[in-house]
């Protein structure tokens, strides 16, 4: 599935090549593909609608910068909007765990059975102990499943947290009261309370969780939800959000083959931030939530946003425009322009860092050409070295360079004469391409990577 999505968007990027700006007309197909991509990624229909509208609105007003084509710009808008919708629009502070209260800070975990609550309790304990140097106590109020209590004991021990024992003949509120009392007397920083889950929403379970919440007044109440359940997550999230003062969401099993579209919908439906993600069965499979990375994952794209950022920040727009203007006028570019472009390419970072940011399908194409970082960098440095050994007149009219001058230039650059020949040949080819395109060489390069 991941492949189809990537291909879908890569195809759009390709079909929009050569178009100067994003219009109502050419954005249509792109938006259609985006809509399908999101639906396939399990994003709920109303959310898809809202998102595509937002994207459309933004896209029509967007300028297409220098070397990017409208398709690439559109993809970056999609990713930006997605990122915003799933939490990127929130201040960092609101995405972080809140422990600012008189200790112990109580964290209540709620969710359906199998969502990963107990595993998450262990993961969160481990994270708090390692990253925040907290003293953590865990307790299970799941009086229906002795195995769940036992499992919490196991993961707590693995995490290095203390486990407060409970039994199935106790009442959840009594367990909570005893654990809280113990946590206070032994100066715990954090008390994590695991609650009972059912396979589907059940009134008794909701009431119990709600009573626990009213009694404990937790500083954080996390809704733990399995990313693999897709659209079902929306209804569950609604019910939990209505009955509990949720403060955040923990999305588990993000390592599964689901696209994580649930993440987007759950955030929209509850209006609560996703704070953590579970990325594996083991306790270290846990991380704080990064909206940008999740948006990439949902779209199956590489980090287009970072690529756009690099391109726009590193290319001197003025210089690029001058070169383009000159090429347009004379229909050719000289070696000074060539050199300028080489320098700009180096400024954009390593070849592999650029390639990393391309979507998977494009990465494959780039890999086929076998460009290693070292190769690319060496090639660029050599080229600049050779051009630097030429006279200004030669740079301007490379066709005037005779054999004897080639030898001198090679000697000046400390390279064999073949290298000079190679460069001049490349220059000829590039001039040819330029003539046909009458556009910046760098954009050609990016387009080749895009195709
Ligand atoms: P609970 O019923 O909500 O307490 O769920 P559990 O903690 O017992 O988890 C249910 C199953 O999901 C277990 O087999 C866990 O190992 C698994 N699980 C939990 N979190 C993750 C995760 O982030 N990734 C993967 N792959 N499996 C997970």
TrEMBL record:
Please give the CDD domains that the UniProt record associates with this protein.
SRP_G
Q: Which reaction does it catalyse?
A: GTP + H2O = GDP + phosphate + H(+)
GO MF, one term, reads: GTP binding
SRP54-type proteins GTP-binding domain: which residues?
273-286
- InterPro entries (alphabetical): AAA+_ATPase, P-loop_NTPase, Signal_recog_part_SRP54_M_sf, Signal_recog_particl_SRP54_hlx, Signal_recog_particle_SRP54_M, SRP, SRP/SRP_N, SRP54
Q: Which Pfam families match?
A: SRP54 (PF00448), SRP54_N (PF02881), SRP_SPB (PF02978)
- SUPFAM superfamilies membership: Domain of the SRP/SRP receptor G-proteins, P-loop containing nucleoside triphosphate hydrolases, Signal peptide-binding domain
Q: Name one GO cellular component term.
A: signal recognition particle
Q: Which residues form the signal peptide?
A: none
Class of the enzyme per the UniProt entry, highest EC level: hydrolase
Superkingdom, according to UniProt? Answer: Bacteria
UniProt subcellular location: Cytoplasm
Q: What is its EC number?
A: 3.6.5.4
Alphabetical keyword list: Cytoplasm, GTP-binding, Hydrolase, Nucleotide-binding, Ribonucleoprotein, RNA-binding, Signal recognition particle
Annotated GTP binding lies at 111-118, 194-198, 252-255
| Alphabetical GO biological process terms | SRP-dependent cotranslational protein targeting to membrane
Record's comment describing the protein's domains = Composed of three domains: the N-terminal N domain, which is responsible for interactions with the ribosome, the central G domain, which binds GTP, and the C-terminal M domain, which binds the RNA and the signal sequence of the RNC.
Biological function: Involved in targeting and insertion of nascent membrane proteins into the cytoplasmic membrane. Binds to the hydrophobic signal sequence of the ribosome-nascent chain (RNC) as it emerges from the ribosomes. The SRP-RNC complex is then targeted to the cytoplasmic membrane where it interacts with the SRP receptor FtsY. Interaction with FtsY leads to the transfer of the RNC complex to the Sec translocase for insertion into the membrane, the hydrolysis of GTP by both Ffh and FtsY, and the dissociation of the SRP-FtsY complex into the individual components.
The similarity comment for this entry is: Belongs to the GTP-binding SRP family. SRP54 subfamily.
Subunit structure and binding partners: Part of the signal recognition particle protein translocation system, which is composed of SRP and FtsY. SRP is a ribonucleoprotein composed of Ffh and a 4.5S RNA molecule.
Task: State what protein this is by name.
Answer: Signal recognition particle protein
Give the organism the record lists: Mesosutterella multiformis
Which gene is transcribed and translated to give this protein? Answer: ffh
